[in-house]
Amino acid sequence: MAIKISSINIRRFYREEELAFANKIREVQTRIEDSKTLEKLQQLKDENILYSDDVSVLTLDELQDYFLSESFNNKDIKFRDSKKVQLIKNFIKKNEKLINNSEIDEFSRNSEELKEYRKNIKDCSETLKSLLKNNKAVRKLEYIYDSDLVALSQSALTNALLIEDNKESNKIVIVTSDQEYMMRDLINDGFIYKDKKYELYSASAGQLRK
Q1: How far apart are CA 4 and CA 144, in angstroms?
Q2: Radius of gyration (Cα) for the chain, nearest Å?
Q3: Do residues 176 and 10 lie in contact, with contact meaning Cβ atoms separated by under 8 Å?
């Protein structure tokens, strides 16, 4: 016997300004990984390795061209060709033993581009932390997706809330957290979803542990 409720990552409670900095951090982190990926591809290219699977054969030049393409680098990371990116990741993982990671680490330390990326991350992180720390507004949850649904066993609590078995319910929402300041906001002030105020009911010791 189970019901379906939503499990939400706390990042969904970002305000617009906070989200802009969080997305910028994520984008720059991805660019750093892109740069390292290109270095790994170049090493494998020097070893005359080809990518191949049951469906297609791609040369490393083609993989590098994709990474360096204007459309790839100017496009929001969420709109990338996920299949091609996964092909690249699988290819590198398959040939990991051929990669000199010491050279990759040295490249990461000395690259001026990566130094600038890391500075951008630090600046954005400090700004984001300040915004989170100084927030005074009650946070809002704007949407819930079908993919957020998880199964929860019937209990005295769900019975008390009159939640029917095998039904979806928004009477209870699970929030998973890795953000100290936003978690503080939710504990102290709750949040709003569809004009309804939600407040903290319970959490295990493990869930509240920093």
Answers
A1: 13
A2: 22
A3: yes
Residues 151, 73 share a domain: no
Strand-pair category, 168-176 with 2-9:
parallel
- Mean pLDDT for 63-68 is 64
The shares of helix, strand and coil residues in the chain, as percent rounded to the nearest 5, are 60, 15, 25
Q: Are residues 51 and 8 in the same domain?
A: no
Rounded distance, CA 204 to CA 198, Å? 18
Q: What is the pTM of this model?
A: 0.75
Tell me how far apart the alpha carbons of residues 37 and 95 are, in angstroms, rounded to a whole number.
Answer: 12
Range of the domain at 146: 2-13+138-208
Q: Could you report the per-residue pLDDT of 9-25, keeping only the tens digit for each?
A: 999 999 999 999 999 99
Q: Which one of 104, 133, 162 terminates a domain?
A: 133
